[in-house]
Write a structure and sequence with these properties.
The chain is α+β, with helices and mostly antiparallel strands. The chain contains seven helices and ten strands.
């Protein structure tokens, strides 16, 4: 297995075309029907008698090689597919919130994790709107009211939760669009999703904003950056990269 790095000066980074996604209906049509009778089975680990220093278990590891991607030189759609396909399983936070105008909002968020159990703390990330870099409704609502609910998605309402990702106008509530049932919360104003098997009523503890980074072309036009880029291009280095394994 090898990992190769190709160093390029940022000011000469090629602009990669962004591929178009195929229609989801076309992709889904190629998949087998959902099997509602299929269940999970708890088993032992592959090698119950594993001992310290044993290394991998007996499951064969496919012969693969690493392919390296520089995030600065890779289009955002490819990075999205790579990250979401590489970090699995990936829980989705189905967040209910209320706008400043008291309009209920529902949105599925791809970036979500539990950070602590005592006290219970979760972390969610809401990306900005790609065209304007403005806050999305969920982030604006949470910043205003300091309250929200994380509803865990189950098979019973997958389609409705997915549809809530629609870019609805500010004055339109996704609750009506999805047909899901609002259940009054006990400690916060936003409602819970009644169909959800597990809900967390949350208060905002901390928030931070990561400003969108300009492209290399925009950044290189700043006078204070030019000298740094020239020195950077003449110095041996390795660019930050993502390394994934692909079949030979």
């Amino acid at each position: 297995m090898e990992s190769t790095h190709k160093n390029l000066s940022p000011s000469h980074a090629p602009a990669a075309p962004e591929p178009k996604r195929p229609p989801f209906a076309k992709v889904e049509a190629q998949r087998p029907p959902f099997d509602k009778d299929k269940t999970f089975t708890l088993t032992k680990v592959p090698k119950p008698d594993w001992k310290p220093d044993d290394g991998p278990n007996d499951i064969p590891i496919p012969t693969r090689q690493f392919e390296t991607f520089d995030p600065q030189l890779t289009d955002k759609h490819s990075l999205y597919n790579m990250i979401l396909g590489g970090v699995v399983p990936r829980p989705i936070a189905f967040v209910s919130s209320i706008s400043e105008q008291n309009i209920p909002n529902l949105a599925p968020l791809s970036y979500f994790m539990m950070a602590s159990h005592h006290p219970p703390v979760c972390a969610i990330s809401v990306v900005v709107k790609p065209e304007t870099y403005d806050e999305k409704d969920t982030a604006a609502n949470i910043h205003y009211h300091k309250e929200f609910v994380v509803n865990i998605i189950s098979e019973q309402y997958l389609e409705a939760a997915n549809y809530a990702a629609i870019d609805a106008p500010h004055n339109v509530s996704e609750w009506a669009l999805t047909g899901l049932t609002p259940l009054p919360s006990e400690t916060v104003c936003p409602a819970r999703v009644q169909e959800s098997p597990f809900q967390m009523e949350c208060l905002l503890e901390h928030s931070g904003a990561e400003k969108p980074r300009p492209s290399w072309e925009e950044e290189a036009t700043r006078p204070e950056v030019k000298a740094v880029l020239e020195k950077w291009a003449q110095t041996p280095h390795e660019t930050p990269s993502l390394a994934v394994r692909s079949d030979e």
